[in-house]
Amino acid sequence: xxxxxxxxxxxxxxxxxxxxxxxxxxxxxxxxxxxxxxxxxxxxxxxxxxxxxxxxxxxxxxxxxxxxxxxxxxxxxxxxxxxxxxxxxxxxxxxxxxxxxxxxxxxxxxxxxxxxxxxxxxxxxxxxxxxxxxxxxxxxxxxxxxxxxxxxxxxxxxxxxxxxxxxxxxxxxx
Length: 174
Known about the structure:
Pfam families: CobA_CobO_BtuR
CATH topology: Rossmann fold
Protein name: corrinoid adenosyltransferase
Strand content: 15-25%
GO molecular function: ATP binding; corrinoid adenosyltransferase activity
Order of helices and strands: EHEHEHEHHEHE
Organism: Geovibrio thiophilus
CATH architecture: 3-Layer(aba) Sandwich
Number of domains: 1
Pathway: Cofactor biosynthesis; adenosylcobalamin biosynthesis; adenosylcobalamin from cob(II)yrinate a,c-diamide: step 2/7
CATH superfamily: P-loop containing nucleotide triphosphate hydrolases
Oligomer: single chain
Distance between the termini: 31 Å
C-alpha cells in the first residue's frame, strides 16, 4: 500500500501526548502496510517506545539523534552536531521514496533550542514527495513551519501530575 497524497501534520503545545499521537499514527500506518521512518531529536533511544517499536513493527525504522542528558541552557557542540546529523538522515529518509510516513519527533524543540535551522526544515517540507505523510512533533512549533502544515493539533495541558513533583515514569512518559 502507498498513499495517493500525503500531508504535513504538526502536533505541538504544552500538553502531554504529542509523541504518543505520532507513534499511534506510525503503528496504524504500519498495520496498513505503510513504511514508516521515525527520527527522534533530543533523545538517545533509551525510551520504552523504542523497545516496543523495534520488537513489534517490521515496517517501522526508528533512529534517535540525541544524547543522554536533558538540555538546560545553551546546547553544546555535540548536541548541535547530533541534531544536524539527524536532520540530514531524516531528510534522506523522506526523499528516498522508501517511506510513506516520516515522523520527526521533538523537532520543534530542536528548532526552539537552535540546534537546527528553520530554513532547513522548511526546505525539507517543501521538497518532500507529495505522497509522503510528514509529522513534526514538539512544543513551540515556529509560525514559519506551521504556515507550511496542512494539519496542526495543539495539545493543551489542563492538569498534569508533573506539577506536583511526579517525575517521568517508564512505560508512561518515557
